[in-house]
Structure formats: C-alpha cells, structure tokens
C-alpha cells in the first residue's frame, strides 16, 4: 500500500514537473513563434492525431484560433527549430559539395545525422542538386538521366548557401527572382521520413500529378499525395501515375521555371498561400532538378531532356480509336467496325478489352466468343486499319500444370515479384489468384517478349494496351497479408487513398530484382511500358504503340496514357482538359480521356459534345464499360453521327499538323497540347484557363462543357482568329472573353493569325482512315500575318518505320509568311516515300480586299475570292513540296 502511494506521489510530481516544463517551453516558444504569419506556418505534426501536448513535445508552436482559414496548421515550426548545420561549401569539378550535420535528433526514428549535398551546374539552364547519406547507400530512382562531370561555364541561375537559417537559395541571375528557397522550414532526413520546403515565386503552379482537378494547382493548404493507385478519378486522391514535377510562373516577367524531385517513394506535397510548398517522402534521397526556362515550353523541353524525350507515335496511332468492354464477341466487334464504316465515320483502330481472353487470362483467346478474332483483324488490316488488345500484368497462378505457359515458364525462369519469404507474391486480379512479373528483371523482359511474340503469332495485333499496372490488386497486399515490418507499416504514411501502402496493391515489403517494392511501387507501370515497347518493336519491326495507365517521369519515351476510369458526366469531360495539359507538362503528350466516359451510361448530348472535344485530344479513343449502353457514334441518331463524322474529319485533316507537333515533342521535347499562356506569356487573364486548350502554337479549341448550351465563351488574346468550321473570323484588340455560337453539331476551333497550317482535305466523302488520307496532296492554310512574320512547319515520313528522324528518312519544311506572301523552304529532305508530297490547294484567310492576282513561283494561277469570308481559295494544284517555292497575292486597294 505504501509502495503504491509512493508511486502515485512520484507520478503526481512527474506530471507537475512535465506541466511546468511544457509551460516553460511554451513561454520560450512564444517568443520564437511570434511574427509567423498563418500563411507561413509549416506543419510540425502532419499526422492526423495532433494535440497541443503532442505538438509541444516536439518543441513546436501551438496556436489555435477559430479565425484561421481551413488547413492552417495549429502546430508549426518555431524560428529556432533544430535542423542541420551547414559546413563550408567546397568547389568541385561539377559545382559544389557541402556537408550537413545535425546534433539534435528529429521526432522521427533513425535520423541520418550527417548528409552530403552535391550541387551540379549541369547546363546554363539546368541546376541539379541532391542530398544523401554519404556513409550508407540509399535507394535512388533507377531511370537514366544525363551525367555530367564538368561545370557549365555560365549559368542563368545563382546559388547561395545560407547557414542561418540553413538552406539553399537559388535565384534567376538576370533579375534575382528567388526560384527555390529551402530556408523557410527545417530539413528533416530520417530513414523513412524526408521533408523539405521551398518558397514559390507566385501561386501559379502547375503539375504535381497524377490528380484530378483544375490545371492550376490549388495553393490554399491543399495536399497532393503521390503513390500509384487504381481508383476511378476523384478530386484529391492519388491516382494511377506519379509525377513530382511542377512549373511555376513568375508573374509579369513572363518567365517560368520548373522543379523535379526525382523520388518514387510514397510522397505528399503540401501547398500553402505564402506561397510555399513542402515535400514529404518516406524513402530514397532528395534529388532535385531546377529548369530555368525562361519560356514555359522551354521548361518542358529542358525537363524531357533529363527524363527522356517522348516517343514518336505511328501516324495511324493519331487516328480515331474505338473500344468498349462488353462487345461480347469478335463478331459483334466487327459489326460495330462495319457500322462505323458504313456511316463514313473516320476510324483507324479497333480495340478489345479483357473479355476477349479465356477466363480473362493474358495471352489467351476465348474461343467460344472470340474465335473469329484473327479473321476480324484480317478484315481490319485489309481496310487499312489496326487492332489493339489489352494486357494486364497479373498472371493467373492457379491453372493446372502444363496448361498455361505464361505461368509455367514464368515460374521456371523466376520472373515474378516475391513476397518477404522469397516465394512469388500472390494477389488477386481479373483471372483470380495472380502473380506479378518483375519488369526490372532482365529475365522478365525476355519472358515477356516470348509471350508477346507467341501471342502475336495467333492474334496479329498492332499495339498494346497495358492496364492495371499500378499494380492493381483486388486484395490488400497479398492473399496471405503483409509483414509487420516498417516497409509495410512505416512510421509515417502520406495521405494516400486507403491510408496504407498496401491498399489495393501488393505489399510494400515485396521483393523485386533491384530492391523493395516499397521503393519501386510507383515505377511498376514505367518498367512494364519499357518491356512492352521493346517487345513490340522486336516482334513487328515497326514503331511501338503502347498506352499505359500507370506512369512515372520518363514514361513518355515508351508509352502514351489515357486518364483512367472516368465517368459519363459533364464535369468529367471538363476535367479531361486539365488532364491532357498536365500530361503534356509531364512529357507524355500522347494522352486522352475515354471519350463519352467509361463508367455509367452516357446521354446523346454529352457523348456528342465529348466526341467533338475528343476529336482534338492528342490520343483520341471512345471507350466504355461492361453493362453500359453502346456509345460509339453509330449507337445514336443520324445527327449525332453526322456531327461526330464532321469533328473527326477536321481531326484527320489536321493530322499533318498534329503529327508535326509530335515530331517536335520527340525531337526537342515540346508540348503537343498546351495552355494558352504558353503562347501568350505574361498575361494573367490566361493563367487559370483550362476550359480551352491549344494544339501547338496555332490552334485554340473551345469546347462546350455544359449541358444544354448552344453558345460558349472563351478567352482570346489579341489578334485575328480564323474558325476552321466555316472559314469565318473575328478580331479582338486585347485579351478578352468572346461568346461564340456553338450549335449542338459543332465545336469551335480557331487558328490564330500569322500561322501556316498543313492540312489534308479529302477529295471525296468516303475517306475514313489515315491510310487513305496519307495519299492526298496537302492544303496549306495561311492565316494573314499583320503583327509580324507568320510561320509553320511540316514534318513528313512514312509514318510507321523505326527511327526515321534519327536515321534521316524524313522531310522537314519550314513556312514563313508576310501580309502578302508565303515561302516554303526545305529544311531537310531525306524522304523516299511511295507518294509524292505535293500541295493541292491553298486557303489564304482574312485577306481584307479583293485579290487581283495570285502567283506561285512567279506564275499566275486561278483563284477564287470569297468577299464575305475574305478568304482566297487556290485549287487543283500539284506543287512539289520537296523544292522551295513561294506564293504571292496582290489585292486591290481603293483610291
């Protein structure tokens, strides 16, 4: 009894002492917490169970108030929170190296007490720095990046080392704009918790994917988690891909820069209105690249120089694609193809979802319903069309021995991801219990090639659709659960969907050939895309066409992407624009959304509007789910079929221009789809625009995104804008909103002044494939240049052979124009295609006066002038494009 009372007294004394101690800490902290504005509070307790006691035990500030905006942390760092001390920077051949040491442990286990920071002055426009443990090797993202050993002689940036507060400050050399400043919040680098914050120049920040939302990322205390996850897109959730890259506008200067954190561990990025940004990741190292632009498209070019330039798709891959889960048979699939053809609706590629496979098993065919698949493909190929099936990574593991070669040979060759005991990890996907190939294993790539080659011998497909590769799992972790280790239960879990690393995927403790799934999870789709692309090239000896759901920086070199399992809802259509703009930032320009929506039943009006919008996606595919109604254009009224045909005919006519954009994406990393501010920088009215978009520098698309609307309002910068539907135009003298008529059967698309756009306009109505369109001569659309010289390009090759640009087997033309003339100059000619490249017609738009003469290379040609439209039409030509030529037009002026 006395002993119990003694313990009770001692406990009371301890509690009193603790309260006294905390009050002293609070008093001291009060001085260190004063003057920190709410927008500059950096969260010291990101876990959800924060209390004042827990906060102050960490030595942090606690100030709560009902007047604070939502998201402002109550628990935040004081000015003097312990962090690393910076040593003296030492010059190296590539820049600097600095030692960082801490003497006080953080509140996360296993601090790395000594770090090294290496700063690489890689090019004049690219700075690279990484912070790592010099005494112990840690995981680094295994994607190829440029290696440099020599410092750039001059740079667009300056680097400053701050010892108190400790951090790195990077500024733009020309105007001292602070691009990156890590002194605002303490650096934490523990084994499974790494945190760094930086200021932002403005709140105009874009990227940080994959997430559903507006194109401009919200900076009002929004958290963006990153961890590849299979889940229908919802605002705020981490989705299929991981892209820790952002582009930040610098305000009135018209400049922009980009930042990449090359880290693939589970992560979250928090934005606050300072403006500032905080990274939290639970593994690897801090490996940053800064891209100085200064143009927005230049930032993307510089980014893709590091992660890899986008692939050059085959020309047919830019045609219209059609798919659904639920055709039921190959005969039904072929029926839809023929129905589309009879309606004269352009289509290049037919797809089949998982239903074609026997028991939904990869590399099999359901012979009761899809026995006619090879004959269907034969019909497609004879019609100049193509076929793509789906492949999921999950390989059925429960078939009788000797009956399913993909599993039998995979086990024999040891190609599957293993659980913590060293046995193949078993999850569950469409075929039931499954195992998962380890695509980082070279043996797996060889095995995957064998399976694709064997399957192609039976089903001669032209591309592959790789789905479910987050990797998706219908059970959390495995059918046997996961371990109790810190890999499966880290000390901190970012705010990812499901709250745990194994939610709807495999265990983080799973073993792959080059490391733990804990590190490699978000790279799974990336690694599969590489193996699939390489296999397709070897099997077909043509360009690979791959569309992947899960992506990572560098995926665009090997695959395109679709935006996942969206819904047949008007907001989903609107969000798709932000999605394609974001993925163009991420170096994956071959991107689109499921037109008309995947889940739920669409309506005719929604589908009609979405077919119009989807005709301008870089990757254009209509796809929907099992159990839903058909939503191909022929499933609706004749009016719907006509408007879909018209929209797709515009797309097919524009394909020479779009294909040229992909060439510049492939050769120098430019975007294909881009926001208006890329082309009109420094205009704040454009910074939030994501209900319109541009294809390249010439074309603005303004879709109807609201039910029942018969007009649409878009934002247009100063200039003359030529409508591709009717040849009409309008002019604005400054950036302003313009309300345009938008009848149900039309979409608004406008070419800006001073552009030369190569087109292929069909002679007759029956052309429905790129195979047919590519035999046509070209039409050059010239929009009159009044504010300086006009320009344009055409890249042309055979559309399917490997490495035509790299091997010099192409034609590149450069167009330039003035108010009364246009020149075509051959920049490079290595093209030896079977069809002559000729101009069949010209459209000279917005000529203000009747034209008296048009000459080509000095020779007069017949023409028509339409006074109401103010357009000149020159037809029935056959001008060789592999020689320089010039066009002039003279108009009659009134005295």
Automatic annotation (TrEMBL):
Keywords: Disulfide bond, Glycoprotein, Glycosidase, Hydrolase, Membrane, Transmembrane, Transmembrane helix. The chain crosses the membrane at residues 12-31. It is found in: Endomembrane system. The keyword Transferase does not apply. GO terms for biological process: carbohydrate metabolic process. Gene3D superfamilies: Glycosidases (3.20.20.80), glycosyl hydrolase (family 31) (2.60.40.1760), Golgi alpha-mannosidase II (2.60.40.1180), Spasmolytic Protein, domain 1 (4.10.110.10). One of its GO terms (molecular function) is carbohydrate binding. One of its GO terms (cellular component) is endomembrane system. The keyword Hydrolase applies. Residues 31-79 form the P-type domain. Belongs to the glycosyl hydrolase 31 family. PANTHER family: ALPHA-GLUCOSIDASE (PTHR22762), GLYCOSIDE HYDROLASE FAMILY 31 N-TERMINAL DOMAIN-CONTAINING PROTEIN (PTHR22762:SF131). This is P-type domain-containing protein.
């Amino acid at each position: 009894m006395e002993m119990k009372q003694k313990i009770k007294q001692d406990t009371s004394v301890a509690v009193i002492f603790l309260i006294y101690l905390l009050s002293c800490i609070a008093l001291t902290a009060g001085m260190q917490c004063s003057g920190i504005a709410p927008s500059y509070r950096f969260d010291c307790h990101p876990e959800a169970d924060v209390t004042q006691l827990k906060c102050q035990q960490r030595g942090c500030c606690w100030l709560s108030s009902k007047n604070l905006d939502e998201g402002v942390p109550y628990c935040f760092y004081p000015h003097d929170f312990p962090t690393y001390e910076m040593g003296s920077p030492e010059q190296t051949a590539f820049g600097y190296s600095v030692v960082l040491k801490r003497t006080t442990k953080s509140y996360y286990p296993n601090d790395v007490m000594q770090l090294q920071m290496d700063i690489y002055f890689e090019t004049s426009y690219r700075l690279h720095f990484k912070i790592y443990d010099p005494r112990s090797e840690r995981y680094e993202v295994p994607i190829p990046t440029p290696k440099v050993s020599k410092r750039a002689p001059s740079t667009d940036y300056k680097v400053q080392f701050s010892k108190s507060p400790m951090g790195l400050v990077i500024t733009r050399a020309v105007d001292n704009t602070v691009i990156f400043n890590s002194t605002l919040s303490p650096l934490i680098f523990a084994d499974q918790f790494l945190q760094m914050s930086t200021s932002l120049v403005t709140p105009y920040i874009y990227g940080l994917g994959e997430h559903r939302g507006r194109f401009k990322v919200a900076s009002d205390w929004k958290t963006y988690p990153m961890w590849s996850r299979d889940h229908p897109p919802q605002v705020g959730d981490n989705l299929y891909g991981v892209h820790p890259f952002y582009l930040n506008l610098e305000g009135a200067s018209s400049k922009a820069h980009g930042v990449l954190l090359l880290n693939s561990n589970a992560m979250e990025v928090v934005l606050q209105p300072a403006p500032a940004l905080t990274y939290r990741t639970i593994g690897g190292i801090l490996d940053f690249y800064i891209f100085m632009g200064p143009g927005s498209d230049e930032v993307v070019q510089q980014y893709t120089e590091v992660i890899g330039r986008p692939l050059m798709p085959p020309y047919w891959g830019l045609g219209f694609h059609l798919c659904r889960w639920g055709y039921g048979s190959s005969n039904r699939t072929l029926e839809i193809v023929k129905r589309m053809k009879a309606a004269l609706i352009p289509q290049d590629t037919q797809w089949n979802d998982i239903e074609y496979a026997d028991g939904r098993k990869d590399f099999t065919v359901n012979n009761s319903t899809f026995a006619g698949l090879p004959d269907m493909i034969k019909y497609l190929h004879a019609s100049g069309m193509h076929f793509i099936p789906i492949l999921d990574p999950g390989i059925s593991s429960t078939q009788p021995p000797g009956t399913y070669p993909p599993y039998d040979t995979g086990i024999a060759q040891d190609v599957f991801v293993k659980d913590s005991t060293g046995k193949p990890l078993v999850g569950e996907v469409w075929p039931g219990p499954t195992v998962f190939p380890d695509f980082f294993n070279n043996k797996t790539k060889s095995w995957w090639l064998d399976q694709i080659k064997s399957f192609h011998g039976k089903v001669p497909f032209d591309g592959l659709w790789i789905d479910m590769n987050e990797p998706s799992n219908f059970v959390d972790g495995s059918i046997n659960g996961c371990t109790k280790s810190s890999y499966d239960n880290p000390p901190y879990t970012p705010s990812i969907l499901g709250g745990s690393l194994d939610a709807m995927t495999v265990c983080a403790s799973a073993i792959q050939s080059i490391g733990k799934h804990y590190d490699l999870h978000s790279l799974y789709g990336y690694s599969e895309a590489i193996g699939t692309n390489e296999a397709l090239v070897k099997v077909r000896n043509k360009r690979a066409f791959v569309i992947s759901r899960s992506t990572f920086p560098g995926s665009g070199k090997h695959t395109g992407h679709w935006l996942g399992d969206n819904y047949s809802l008007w907001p989903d259509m609107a969000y798709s624009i932000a999605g394609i703009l974001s993925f163009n930032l991420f170096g994956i320009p071959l991107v689109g959304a499921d037109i008309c929506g995947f889940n739920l039943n669409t309506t005719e009006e929604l589908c009609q509007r979405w077919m119009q919008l989807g005709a301008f996606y870089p990757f254009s595919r209509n796809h929907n789910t099992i159990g839903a109604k058909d939503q191909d254009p022929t499933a609706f009224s004749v009016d719907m079929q006509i408007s879909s045909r018209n929209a797709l005919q515009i797309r097919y006519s524009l394909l020479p221009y779009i294909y040229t954009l992909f060439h510049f994406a492939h050769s120098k990393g430019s975007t294909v789809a881009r926001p208006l501010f890329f082309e009109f920088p420094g205009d704040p009215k454009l910074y939030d625009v994501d209900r319109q978009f541009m294809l390249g520098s010439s074309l603005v698309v303004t879709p109807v995104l609201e039910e029942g609307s018969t007009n649409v309002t878009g934002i247009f910068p100063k200039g003359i804008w030529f409508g591709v539907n009717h040849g009409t135009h309008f002019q604005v003298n400054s950036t302003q909103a313009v309300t345009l008529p938008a009848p149900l059967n039309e979409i608004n698309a406008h070419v800006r002044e001073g552009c030369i756009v190569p087109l292929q306009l069909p002679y007759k109505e029956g052309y429905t494939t790129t195979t047919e369109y590519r035999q046509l001569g070209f039409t050059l659309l010239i929009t009159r240049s009044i504010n300086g010289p006009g320009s344009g390009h055409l890249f042309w090759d055979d559309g399917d052979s490997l490495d035509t640009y790299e091997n010099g087997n192409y034609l590149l033309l450069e167009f330039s124009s003035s108010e009364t003339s246009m020149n075509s100059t051959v920049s490079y000619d290595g093209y030896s295609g079977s069809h002559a490249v000729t101009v069949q017609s010209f459209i000279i738009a917005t000529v203000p006066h009747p034209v008296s003469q048009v000459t080509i290379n000095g020779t007069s040609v017949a023409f028509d002038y339409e006074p109401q439209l103010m357009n000149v039409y020159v037809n029935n030509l056959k001008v060789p494009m592999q020689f320089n030529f010039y066009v002039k037009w003279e108009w009659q002026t009134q005295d």
